[in-house]
């Protein structure tokens, strides 16, 4: 069935099946579009912006939304609302234009403590208590990351343990044990930080409107993984009464690194960090193309270098995997210098590798910068 649509004098014709693909819009819903029917002309008449509707009409046909270059963004967004394309399509358009989309805060159904707590944590700007909690969260994350880095310095590594001497009256020997030092300032400060993070996590879990969705969110899992290592180390130390038993375990060494995930909590309170993450997400395709090129080129130049250096007795590249390490370090312009070619043909292959790397690195950089500028400009406008 053919349909005729008049948008402020500009005529569009299509079939009804195109409009019905989006039943929530004013043209897809029979009850909504009935209000715009003109029986005399046998067409739908809508008083809207024709250039904007051209893009909307193309979206109805192809499913792709793109603002016309000559149409102001505010005008186009108004027309998206006029035709009731919905929040999902609106968010899709905003992301394509580099506009940060703030998630709609879902609140618990019942009024009371749960709703207040949830709103305080999830919408810090809504109250003075929320702003205070946000400040405390940023402070403890920063303190925790500072402690995580400083305690690895050689002069501080022994402070987590203290010596304890046990005298055996039967043998007359004295045995020295290294036991946890619970009075260590690093341990005390880390304990304060973890107590805050734990209270924050479980208060948010208690007050969240949908616990299944809560556990599916990545940042909530990051919060949980960042506090688990502290309790694992503490539990093992209390059970064994030995210092660094947890740190000597290969598995727990890995879990301790998870403490570094706390730095991602800052993205919740920093709009600039969100801009940077959105810019990287928007540049993901270009980044993966760059990564694929680096892998292919790394293997290719490593193979060439291995062949070129094979008959050189003083060669430092004795296998292709060693050549891949050298190729990646050279193409990314790092150049550690731990492995270098020594033959004429090896240096020739190295020159081609370095030039290719410089070209490859410069290709995705402008795209990432452009996406960052686009997102940043939208939050400053």
Automatic annotation (TrEMBL):
Residue ranges the record marks as coiled coil: none
Give a GO biological-process term. Answer: protein homooligomerization
Name where it's found.
Membrane
Q: How does it sit in the membrane?
A: Multi-pass membrane protein
> Per UniProt, what is one Pfam family of this protein?
Ion_trans
Q: Which UniProt keywords apply?
A: Ion channel, Ion transport, Membrane, Potassium, Potassium channel, Potassium transport, Transmembrane, Transmembrane helix, Transport, Voltage-gated channel
Q: State the signal peptide span.
A: none
InterPro entries per UniProt: Ion_trans_dom (IPR005821), K_chnl_volt-dep_Kv (IPR003968), K_chnl_volt-dep_Kv1 (IPR003972), SKP1/BTB/POZ_sf (IPR011333), T1-type_BTB (IPR003131), VG_K_chnl (IPR028325), Volt_channel_dom_sf (IPR027359)
Ranges for the Potassium channel tetramerisation-type BTB domain? 3-92
Is rRNA-binding found in the keyword set? no
Q: Which GO terms describe its cellular component?
A: voltage-gated potassium channel complex
What domain of life is recorded for the organism?
A: Eukaryota
Span-the-membrane segments of this chain are 133-153, 186-206, 287-308, 348-372
Which Gene Ontology molecular-function terms are recorded? delayed rectifier potassium channel activity
> What is the protein name stated in its UniProt record?
BTB domain-containing protein
Q: Which organism is it from?
A: Capitella teleta (Polychaete worm)
């Amino acid at each position: 069935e053919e349909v005729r649509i008049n948008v402020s004098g500009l005529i569009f014709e299509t079939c009804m099946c195109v409009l019905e693909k989006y039943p929530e819009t004013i043209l897809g819903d029979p009850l909504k579009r009935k209000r715009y029917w003109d029986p005399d002309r046998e067409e739908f008449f809508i008083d809207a912006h024709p250039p904007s509707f051209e893009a909307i009409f193309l979206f109805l046909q192809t499913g792709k939304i793109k603002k016309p270059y000559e149409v102001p963004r505010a005008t186009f967004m108004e027309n998206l609302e006029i035709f009731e394309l919905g929040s999902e399509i609106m968010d899709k358009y905003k992301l394509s234009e580099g506009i940060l989309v703030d998630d709609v805060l879902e609140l618990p159904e019942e009024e009371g403590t749960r709703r207040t707590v949830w709103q305080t944590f999830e919408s810090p700007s809504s109250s003075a208590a929320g702003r205070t909690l946000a400040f405390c969260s940023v402070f403890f994350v920063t303190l925790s990351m500072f402690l995580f880095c400083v305690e690895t310095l050689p002069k501080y590594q022994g402070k987590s343990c203290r010596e304890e001497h046990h005298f055996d009256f039967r043998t007359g020997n004295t045995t020295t044990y290294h036991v946890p030092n619970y009075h260590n300032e690093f341990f005390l400060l880390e304990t304060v930080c973890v107590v805050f993070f734990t209270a924050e996590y479980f208060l948010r879990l208690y007050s969240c409107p949908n616990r299944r969705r809560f556990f599916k969110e990545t940042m909530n899992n990051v919060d949980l993984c960042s506090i688990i290592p502290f309790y694992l180390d503490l539990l093992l130390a209390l059970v064994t009464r030995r210092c660094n038993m947890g740190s000597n375990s290969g598995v727990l060494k890995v879990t301790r690194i998870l403490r570094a995930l706390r730095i991602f909590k800052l993205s919740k309170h920093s709009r600039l960090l969100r801009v940077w993450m959105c810019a990287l997400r928007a540049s993901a395709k270009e980044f993966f193309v760059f990564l694929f090129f680096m892998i292919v080129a790394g293997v290719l130049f490593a193979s060439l270098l291995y062949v070129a250096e094979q008959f050189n007795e003083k060669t430092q590249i004795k296998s292709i995997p060693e050549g891949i390490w050298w190729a990646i370090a050279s193409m990314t312009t790092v150049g550690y210098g731990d492995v270098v070619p020594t033959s004429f043909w090896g240096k020739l292959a190295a020159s081609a590798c370095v030039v290719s790397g410089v070209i490859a690195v410069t290709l995705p950089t402008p795209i990432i910068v452009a996406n960052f500028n686009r997102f940043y400009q939208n939050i400053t406008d």
